[in-house]
Every structure is written in structure tokens, then in C-alpha cells.
Amino acid sequence: PAQKSWACLHSSTARPAGKPVHSRVINGSSTAPSETPMSKTPVRVAVTGAAGQIGYALLFRIASGEMLGKDQPVILQLLEIPDEKAQNALKGVIMELEDCAFPLLAGIEAHSDPLTAFKDTDYALLVGARPRGPGMERADLLAANAQIFTVQGKALNAVASRNVKVLVVGNPANTNAYIAMKSAPDLPAKNFTAMLRLDHNR
């Protein structure tokens, strides 16, 4: 699709075709070591809901250096629900990222378990959330997402870097951020942020 071609074609940091691909890890198994020398230690960026529309839009920008700078290598730790369709979609996104051959992309991991997806992560973008379905009251939506963000908060507390910075995107972002923060008592509360600009502007 045109949108997917755009992601690589409009990146000034994609490597020429034929260059080696960085490491790829699928559910904990590395398939190809990085062959590109990097002056900085790669940082680990976890993204939940990575095969969704928002996650897809973010990943190529992170890999190209738009998030952390043009000299900062990254390892993407991608989380999707343990559903065959979602996991297959995630594999497709990973193949596109590999095709782009971003010089800063030091590794890619695909996960269905937050405890492995958040291992040693330096940044966590909590994008995935339960959408409001037909007939759902707001209370139902809050309850469904409370369960998701409680699990993810506990996982961050258990395995993430002690200085991890967490951005909650999934709506209702403020409530979800609070739940994740309260579920991670060993992490600094100041490191949790809810993306509320859209709600504020509305």
C-alpha cells in the first residue's frame, strides 16, 4: 500500500538496499546479529499495540531517529496481544522495518508477554488499549482497560529499567496512566506521562 511505501521512501536515514539488516528477535530468539558499528549504546524502546495504526505510525519515526536523535541507536521491543492475527500483523510490520534498513535500528523484538516486552526497557510507549465497542458504557471501558494497564504497570515494575520513562497513549489516557503508575510502586511516579494534548484542545 502507498502508506507503507511512504514510511521508507520519505526517510532520509534508510540505508541503501543490500546493506545488512540489524538483529531481529522473535519471541526471544535472535535471528541476525547487527553488523553496523554504533558509537552510542542502543536504548530499548517498548511499544504496545505495535501493529495498530498509531503504533505503526510511530515505529518508523522512532527507528529513523525522530524520537531520540539522529545519533541514538534503538532496540524496538514490540508488544501485541497473543492472538494469531495480531502476531502475524506484527511480523509484517517487522519485515517492513527491516526493509527500510534504518542505520539506527539495532534490533527488533516481537512479544506477546509484557514481562518479556518490557525487559530492561528505557522508554515505554503504552499505545495499545481496549477500544469502546457497541453497547459499552464508559464504566465498562474503564474496567477493561484497568485490567490491561494493571498488568503492564506490574510488568514495568518488575523488569523495566529503574529510570524508564513511560508515555500512556491509550484512552482514557489519564486514568490508564494513573493505573499503570500505581501498579509500579518501585518506579518514580514522575516518570509516567499521559498524552492529553488532544483532550486538552477539545
Automatic annotation (TrEMBL):
Family membership noted in the UniProt record: Belongs to the LDH/MDH superfamily. MDH type 2 family.
Designated name of the protein: malate dehydrogenase
Pfam families xrefs: Ldh_1_N
What's its top-level EC category?
oxidoreductase
Q: Which InterPro entries match?
A: Lactate/malate_DH_N (IPR001236), Malate_DH_type2 (IPR010945), NAD(P)-bd_dom_sf (IPR036291)
Q: Please give one Gene Ontology molecular function term for this protein.
A: L-malate dehydrogenase (NAD+) activity
Biased composition, class Polar residues, residue ranges = 26-39
